[in-house]
TrEMBL record:
Keywords: Lyase, Magnesium, Metal-binding
EC number: 4.1.1.112, 4.1.3.17
Amino acids binding Mg(2+): 98
Catalytic reaction equation(s): 4-hydroxy-4-methyl-2-oxoglutarate = 2 pyruvate; oxaloacetate + H(+) = pyruvate + CO2
InterPro entries per record: RraA (IPR010203), RraA/RraA-like (IPR005493), RraA/RraA-like_sf (IPR036704)
Gene3D superfamilies: Ribonuclease E inhibitor RraA/RraA-like
Protein known as: 4-hydroxy-4-methyl-2-oxoglutarate aldolase
Family label: Belongs to the class II aldolase/RraA-like family.
Pfam families: RraA-like
Binding annotation for substrate: 75-78, 97
Upper classification of the organism: Bacteria, Pseudomonadati, Pseudomonadota, Gammaproteobacteria, Pseudomonadales
Species of provenance: Marinobacter lutaoensis
Amino acid sequence: MTDIITPDLCDEFPDVQVVAPGFRNFGGIRAFGGEIVTVKCFEDNSVVKEQVGLPGNGRVMVVDGGGSMRNALLGDMLAEKAAANGWAGLIIYGCIRDVDEIGRTHLGVQALGTVPRKTEKRGIGDLNVPVTFHGVTFHPGHYVYADNNGIIVSEKPLV
């Protein structure tokens, strides 16, 4: 894959959507991108857990956790499973935990922050529905690219 540098992609493709700032890079892969798979959940990562167990095929899971800062939607075990199953990364509108381990995992991870508390598993969440946060709507099948400069979204692949 070509290097992902979001400022260069913005210059080359000025119509991309730019996600408002606020996300931090936590994964072992600092720049990543791919086709979007969405999960909408609130303080319950059951659907995230199911999805990381499936082949990722270089896709990026965009998780709308409602911006909750109370529970972590991703920890080291799920991150390791996602990496082993070929996910390019996860962008989480919420928190993660086990950041030191996730930083050593071959996976792109961006999130709002960290919190040590895990979620309850109630089996609640929606898969592949449009989700909106930080000024952008993420559609399943569109493409997302992320690095230390920010996150951008496109209807078509850019790299």
